[in-house]
Design a protein that fits this description.
seven-stranded mixed sheet, three-stranded antiparallel sheet, single chain, 17 helices
């Protein structure tokens, strides 16, 4: 089974539609020991096909439009954050304290891009913000000691593990035992009535309202893709936790951005929810439940809603409540060892767990909307970076097909002015016949939009 066949099956798609997917193979794209190119291609292909399916349904087309997956476009988009320029300035990818460090018995990977995570890491180690002092403090401790101590303080650090060590870990079994895409029905709400859309340009998600409660890469990539396909996406962030400016610039295309305190501004959020079609969350499992944002609670207040949930480690197992990012999942699951050399840990050529899971999450939302139009019911979909990692390491077949060489990202880059400066950016790889070629709007300043639908 090819990667796109597996992904489409996990999404509950009709296998007969797979013939609508064509691929442009480009050798050298996302080169790695693991089949990263194939994973990226599968996630984007499944997402594009889900969009084409919904578009055909809404436009009354007799046949689902074809979708074209170009390895060059996919490879460029999977490192979109590296191609971003803001007024000619390249973004800062990782803060100085976000990296691998030697410990007394191995390696540990930390993530300290956000100020509050950086403060918790330094507080655990008892040192000021100085790379040399952090290096010395970590060298005196075991990797597992650091992992547990930083986690207990609310920071992020993960011991480097081999694939065998991860397989023996209790958390490894939790996501691996679950489907790649968890899908379910929450109630018996009436079938969704989707308004017709024009066949050209085909915007499958036109008119649909998406509340985006996600951060960093995977969730924002999903909602950025829904925005490309016509959805009205409103990103909602807590005022006290500003998004990193470069992160927002990369993933804010097509969206508006507002700030709401879910306690103090509860009435404003509930008003948004009354007209929302989709709610996407990217926080640790259960963290938002106290605000009434569990799938069940949301469906009770907004029957017919689609709730999409994303996390690092999954909703099950001893690590379900832990924070996590793509780089940490790579370190824990053995990917960093596979991609390393001698005794040095390595990394995938892209934050492919983030990007891949993001496109799969968008695909799951699109498929849920299509299914609702036939069968009704509020729906939930759930994905985890660790489950995508298991697919990459244990179930993704390599492709031996030959093609032209990947000669660089230039054909898939674009430029435009925005409220935050002149942007160079990667265009979306989601391409369906008659569909959009770019986002309707560039990102604006973080949190600068009113808390209302367009």
């Amino acid at each position: 089974m090819t990667g796109v066949e597996f992904a489409w099956s996990a999404l509950g798609g009709d296998p007969a539609l797979l013939s609508r997917v064509s691929t442009v193979v480009r050798e050298g794209a996302l080169r790695a020991r693991l089949p990263v190119r194939e994973l990226a291609r599968a996630c984007v292909g499944a997402c594009a096909l889900a969009g084409a399916e919904l578009g055909a349904r809404r436009a009354g087309l007799g046949q689902v439009p074809g979708v074209r997956v170009d390895d060059g476009a996919v490879a460029t988009a999977f490192v979109s954050e590296r191609h971003l320029l803001v007024d000619g300035r390249a973004p800062i990818m990782f803060a100085p304290l976000s990296r691998f460090w030697r410990t007394a018995d191995g390696w540990v990977r930390t993530h300290a891009n956000y100020p509050h995570h950086r403060a918790r890491l330094l507080g655990t180690l008892g040192v000021p913000e100085d790379v040399a002092l952090v290096e010395a403090a970590l060298a005196e401790r075991s990797a597992l000691e650091v992992e547990e101590a930083v986690y207990a303080a609310g920071g992020l650090a993960v011991a480097l593990r081999t694939p065998a060590e991860w397989a023996a870990h209790e958390q490894a079994a939790a996501p691996a035992e679950r489907p790649l895409v968890e899908r379910g029905r929450l109630d018996e709400a009436h079938a969704r009535v989707l308004s017709p859309v024009d066949p050209a340009p085909l915007l499958p998600a036109a008119g649909l309202r998406v509340l985006d409660l996600t951060r960093v890469i995977a969730g924002p990539v999903a909602t950025r893709t829904l925005a490309l396909l016509g959805a009205d996406v409103l990103r909602v962030d807590p005022p006290q936790l500003p998004e990193l400016p470069d992160q927002h610039a990369d993933t804010g295309f097509g969206k508006r951005s507002t700030r709401l305190d879910l306690t103090a501004d509860r009435a404003a959020f509930e008003e948004l929810l009354t007209a929302a079609d989709v709610v996407v969350t990217g926080y640790r499992p259960g963290v938002l439940d106290r605000f009434g944002l569990s799938p069940e609670a949301l469906a009770e207040r907004r029957p017919g809603v689609v709730v999409a949930q994303l996390s690092a480690w999954g909703a099950y197992g001893p690590w379900k409540g832990r924070r996590g990012f793509d780089s940490l999942v790579q370190a824990a699951t053995g990917i960093a060892v596979i991609e390393g050399w001698v005794d040095q840990p390595g990394a995938l050529p892209a934050q492919a767990l983030d990007h891949g899971t993001g496109y799969l999450l968008a695909a799951a939302v699109l498929r849920a909307l299509t299914e609702q139009s036939y069968d009704g019911g509020s729906r939930f979909v759930r994905l985890a970076l660790a489950r995508t990692a298991a697919w990459l390491t244990d179930g993704m077949p390599a492709d031996t097909a030959e093609g032209a060489a990947y000669d660089g990202p230039e054909p898939w880059l674009a430029e435009r002015d925005s409220g935050i400066g002149r942007l160079r950016y990667a265009r979306s790889p989601v391409a369906l016949a008659g569909g959009p070629v770019d986002w309707a709007r560039p990102p604006g300043p973080w949190g600068s939009d009113p808390a209302r639908w367009a």
